Amino acid sequence: MRKICVITGTRAEYGLLYWLMKEIQNEKDLVLQIIATGMHLSPEFGLTGRQIEKDGFQIDKNIEMLLSSDSEVGVAKSMGLGMIGFADAFSDLKPNLIVVLGDRFELLSAVSTAMIAKIPIAHIHGGELTEGAFDDSIRHSITKMSHLHFTATKEYKNRVIKLGEQPNRVFNVGGTGIDNIKKLQLLSKKEFEESVHFKLGKRNLMVTYHPVTFENNTAQQQFKNLLTAIDKLDETNIIFTKANSDTNGRIINQMIDEYVALNSNKAAAYTSLGQLRYLSAMQYIDGVVGNSSSGLLEAPSFKIGTINMGDRQRGRIKASSVIDCNSSIEGIQCALNKLFLPSFQKQLHQVKNPYGNGGASKKIAEIIRSFPLDGILKKIFYDNC
């Protein structure tokens, strides 16, 4: 019986891991272990760890690591606290393999500790680029410490191999978020409106904006520009989902609260919608605005447009439904005008999601069940030059 330890620190990441956790839970040859950390344990970010338990999972370890500060110093200290917590957790749980997804700083603490503890690591969504955020460096660092790799596109698979990883340990499985779209019974419009206590309008946008962590103190001005641009829209309701615990994330969340307080007739904000309500909303909105990865990974499957601001997601593979713009008021307004053009809306029906059609979770579960782990820790650099 292999003990597979899944580590999650954010609401978005948990949503992408949900069906994989179900597959592991239902696999007779695997034992699921869960470590919750980061925002899952924070009242400020919605205590989303409760949702994990509500979904029928048992959390084996909670690792408190977030400090109240979202400064560079605060984030770095949080990473240190995380390593202390993960060291004790791994010593107690003794997993045969840990599974992480993405590029959050909480996960860098986890995999660094697992590497020292000689625990094999499986990494999901490696090989991607987000050149405007330090997540990019974290993701590639996790790749170099990992032993099994599950990528979302062929291009990302090739990039992981170029980083020196053995090709027989790199598997292109597609995006795990597509499984939610295919498997969840999404809410009707009435059910969604009742669940969020907010009425949709003639036109509707979902706004999610996170700080660009490789830039110094730009979050406030950039988000102010975004608010100015969307405030000029006629007959358009706005659903905000709040920022993560990144550097300066609290500035954005405060600005959201202030905007909603002044515009409660057309705007609402949520710390965490959860996957069901978030994906249900995508059925009824006209587009996603901001710099969240979900606008690139999941929105194309709903045949809706995405306005991708600034550099945070620079380098990711994008569907034709994605409109890139700079963070100026004029740039955002130009992108909004394009989003609502009848010609652009018409071509959205033909959009294909480059991250696949689902099934990633089942593929990953089958591989981590059967892939030989003996001798996997000693990696040989694959020099393909």
Q: Can you offer a commentary on this structure?
A:
- The mean pLDDT is 93.
- Helices cover 41% and strands 16% of the residues.
- The chain starts with a strand and ends in a 15-residue tail after the last helix.
- The protein has helices at residues 11-26, 49-54, 72-93, 105-116, 135-145, 154-162, 177-183, 189-196, 219-231, 249-262, 274-282, 294-297, 329-339, 342-347, 360-370, and strands spanning 2-8, 30-37, 61-63, 97-101, 121-124, 148-151, 170-172, 203-208, 236-241, 267-270, 287-290, 305-309, 322-325.
- With 385 residues, the chain is of the alpha/beta class.
- Helix 9 packs across helix 13.
- The protein folds into two domains: 2-174 and 359-370, Rossmann fold (3-Layer(aba) Sandwich); 187-350, Rossmann fold, CATH 3.40.50.
Rg, Cα atoms, Å: 20 Å
The helix/strand class is: alpha/beta
What is the CATH C level class of the largest domain, in words?
A: Alpha Beta
Oligomer: single chain
Please tell me the overall pLDDT: 93
Distance between the termini: 39 Å
Determine the fraction of residues in helical runs and give it as a percent range: 40-55%
Biggest sheet: strands, sense, closure? 7 strands, parallel
